[in-house]
Amino acid sequence: MGGEVNVRSAIHFASAALLLAALSCGAAQLAVAADTPDPVADAKAFQKYFTQKFPKVKLQDFVNGPYSMNEDMHRQWEEKEQFPPYDFSLDLGKEMFSKPFKNGKSYADCFPNQGIGIRQNYPYFDEKEGKVVTLELALNRCREANGEAPFSYVKDEMAALTAYMAFTSRGKPFDIKIPNDPRALEAYQNGKRYFYTRRGQLNFSCASCHVQSPGERIRAEVLAPALGILNAMPIYRSEWGGMGTVSRRFITCNSQIRGVPLEPQSDEYRDLEYYLSYVSNGLPISGPGARP
Amino acid sequence: MSMIRKITRMNSALALACLLVIAGATSVLAASSEADFKTAYAAAEAANKQAASLRNQWTTTAAALAAAKKAADGGDFDQAVASSKEAEALARASIFQATSEKEAWKALEIR
């Protein structure tokens, strides 16, 4: 009699253990599924978030940053665009782009379609290198491969070159690809993590301003939405009194929240640009832009 | 008799309290030495290096470290120690931030 009870208890115990094991496996699978990057779903959710938050703003208009958030500012911008403050940089970029290097080659030799109308495809994941390559990085690599010294990543010449290349791509939708390579997905995920990670003494992430508070004022500035924020790069900023590249934008954001910026074109910034560009896929290139 | 004992005990307690206060005040008033600064600065630098390995240094840590060095160069070791300790506290906070954000970032994600 006592033996039967023991056997029954053992069976009950084993069943309970099996059930628990099955449940925990299921939970683990769910957790894995939740953590597995899904860029397509991310981009859809990202664009939905902004279009729902600003139902009056057309999807394509998010590339105009703070000017899409505020009617008065939009009018100012329309007037400003008649005599754009970035024109000097665009002219310089065009001139630089067509001028051959000392070896006789030029930027056109380094890029598909001679570098015209290709901005929307950058950054891309280079499967040979196993890393993200941005337009700024590709330009400096082109220079170095042709025996020229690299430019500063943050302004002046680099901004001029990228301004010209963006101008030749105006209206073309961002078309960032994530190849079927686990390293590309990892780079994308690292960029996403960087975007949402709080840093600096002010404990801000990129998302604190550009997801949670676009359209709100931070001192005198109206914060831009993260959606389409890179489509307008490079930009002339009145605050800077000059042009700035994507690198300059990331570095400045980090310093403003009292974080020590990383070096321009560090892996983190390259991955961040990859993520932010990908989630704006479909929105047109509008650079070079002007911002307050 | 018992009253006298109580008073004596109270006096002893008071004397001890006074001694403790004086000892405390003396230690606060004691000037920091160059050695104190070096110890405090090394601890702050080590914490800031750890923050660098996590790619999460703060500009305010660097500013406090620079202020500590400037004070030490001017011979003001009290200020140098105070700034070093501030730098260490800031660096430790940045390490805490980087560590907690390893998972916490997901809470902000648009899904």
Summarize the structure.
The complex is a heterodimer of chains A (292) and B (111). Chain A is mainly α and 292 residues long. Chain A is built from 10 helices and 7 strands.
Overall description:
The complex is a heterodimer of chains A (292) and B (111). By secondary structure, chain A is mainly alpha-helical. Chain A has helices at 2-35, 39-53, 71-80, 87-98, 135-145, 156-167, 182-196, 206-210, 246-256, 267-278; strands spanning 124-126, 131-133, 217-218, 221-222, 235-237, 242-244, 289-291. In chain A, strands 6-5-7 form a 3-stranded mixed β-sheet. Chain A has a two-stranded antiparallel ribbon with strand order 1-2. The N and C termini of chain A lie far apart (87 Å). Residues 16-33 of chain A have low confidence and may be disordered. Chain B folds into 2 domains: 1-30; 31-105. Mean pLDDT of chain B is 84; it is low at 18-28. In chain B, helix 2 (34-53) packs antiparallel against helix 3, helix 2 (34-53) packs parallel to helix 4 and helix 3 (59-73) packs antiparallel against helix 4 (77-104). Chain B is an all-alpha fold and 111 residues long. The chains are: A mainly alpha (292), B mainly alpha (111). The A-B interface holds A 42, 45-46, 49, 192-193, 196-201, 203, 205, 207-208, 211-212, 255, 258-260, 262, 268 and B 55-60, 62, 90, 93-94, 97-98, 101, 104-106, 108-111.
